[in-house]
UniProtKB/TrEMBL annotation:
Location of this chain's protein in the cell: Secreted
The keyword RNA-binding is assigned to this record: no
Name of the featured protein: Putative trypsin-like serine protease
Keyword Signal: yes
Keywords: Disulfide bond, Glycoprotein, Hydrolase, Immunity, Innate immunity, Protease, Secreted, Serine protease, Signal
Matching InterPro entries: Peptidase_S1_PA (IPR009003), Peptidase_S1_PA_chymotrypsin (IPR043504), Peptidase_S1A (IPR001314), Serine_Proteases_S1 (IPR050127), Trypsin_dom (IPR001254), TRYPSIN_HIS (IPR018114), TRYPSIN_SER (IPR033116)
Family listed: Belongs to the peptidase S1 family. CLIP subfamily.
A single GO molecular function term of this UniProt record: serine-type endopeptidase activity
């Protein structure tokens, strides 16, 4: 399962809501089959089949994603100037339920996106997997301040329910304060180069490594977006290899990991 790196609140019966929903969504893409051994008084052997694309392995460098690898990835579309029926997808997000997208609050700082697109892989080609939704509401973190990198999170409510498919389904939210991994994957359609003008037309993926928070505290010392330093709830993620990072246009997109056993 793909896990987004966020801590969720407790649900009913003492179990985190994130855990409950993850188990619920897992049933959608799995089926159980039974085998009857050719023996006397056989006991059926059951096993699960996952109806999903192969899970990606952690990658060495930034590269083009494969179709269907990241079925939770969402794009936020902003109307183009002079042609409001066409959209520029300048922010990303993550499908986390059948009505909600998790994204960054600063994606709503200047102008607001009007649509959310799911199932997108190549923006130059229209496929039957793409589904576009209107935005019914937005809830930004109440303590978010523009031009600051604290509490930069928002929930987008879609105008209708999402029907899950092999290539459109939610990611699980990370449900523990403990993490036993140090490498993650970021995805997006942002600029391929820092000085680039055009956004990528296909989904890209890159492996990023976690560093001690103190490293980021030193790197961003005095930066206007980090007036209060690095908070405990923030992660320090990047790469010592040049050219590997997220970029403009990737804002709001997921930082994710794959759990063991690797399923969907």
């Amino acid at each position: 399962a793909w896990f987004l790196l966020l801590i969720n609140q407790h649900g009913v019966q003492g179990q985190r809501l994130a855990v409950q929903k993850c188990a619920e969504y897992a049933k959608i893409i799995t089926k159980t089959q039974a085998l009857i051994p050719l023996t006397i008084n056989p006991k059926p052997i059951t096993y699960k089949i996952y109806n999903c694309t192969n899970v990606v392995q952690l990658i060495v460098g930034g590269e083009q994603a494969k179709f269907g690898e990241f079925p939770h990835h969402a794009l936020l579309g902003y109307p183009r100037e002079g042609n409001p029926n066409e959209y520029d997808f300048r922010c990303g997000g993550s499908l986390i339920s059948d009505r909600h997208i998790l994204t960054a609050a600063h994606c709503f700082s200047e102008d607001d996106p009007k649509v959310v697109r799911l199932g997108e892989y190549d923006t130059t080609f229209e496929s039957e997997d793409e589904v576009q939704f209107g935005i019914a509401g937005v809830r930004k973190h109440p303590n978010y301040l523009n031009q600051r990198s604290y509490n930069d999170i928002a929930l987008v409510k879609l105008d209708r329910q999402v029907w899950f498919t092999k290539n459109v389904r939610p990611a699980c939210l990370w449900d523990s304060e403990y993490r036993n991994m140090t490498s993650y994957i970021a995805t997006g359609f942002g600029h391929n180069e820092t000085v680039g003008i055009a956004l990528s037309t296909t989904m890209m993926k890159v492996q990023l490594d976690e560093f001690p928070v103190n490293d980021c505290a030193q790197a961003f010392l005095g930066h206007k977006r980090f007036k209060n330093g690095i908070h405990d709830g923030q992660m320090c993620v990047g790469s010592i290899v040049g050219g590997k990072d997220t970029c403009q246009g990737d804002s709001g997109g997921p930082l994710q990991t794959v759990t063991n056993p690797k399923t969907c």
